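haha ok so turns out i had the wrong file open the whole time. this is the CORRECT one, sorry everyone. sequence first:
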Amino acid sequence: MGIYHFPRAMNRRAVSALLAASASLLVLFCSMLCAPPATADPNPVKHRFLKSSQDPWVHSNAVGIFTGQVDWSQSGRKTLAWRLQMQPEAAAVVFGNSMTCNSWVGGTNWTDYHANIEPSYVLHASIPDLRDDGYLYEFRSICRFKVLTDAGLVDGTWETSVNFRIGTND
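then structure:
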């Protein structure tokens, strides 16, 4: 922190007010920049896709909606079709109507990347060649964008974490 130099004409009351205002701005600045970014689900949601329940599985929260469905018609390895969309209320705070998203599944070589997409865009893909023996897969998606606050533009991050298994517990 710097050293404050006050003009001789300032009285104690003015100096106290200036210091209080400076401290308030420092607290506000640190609360925006020192705090970790808000995330959709910091802890992974867990799900097991079973053949007996072939309907799409949907998980939603205040930030987004994840939908996944396994194609059971193939013998052997399976394909997971998924989609991810930001809730309209969350999308409304994205500055410049643009974000960049990167998605991947741990345990595979599959990745998906989209730059400069609108927050209303529905991320979607099919992940082929997945085991159906209960192997743990870790779906992750991170979208980065800007949010306009009273203090200016700040970075925003939307993270989605889904740990899933394609099991044979029927």
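The first strand starts at residue 45 and ends at 49.
again sry for the mixup
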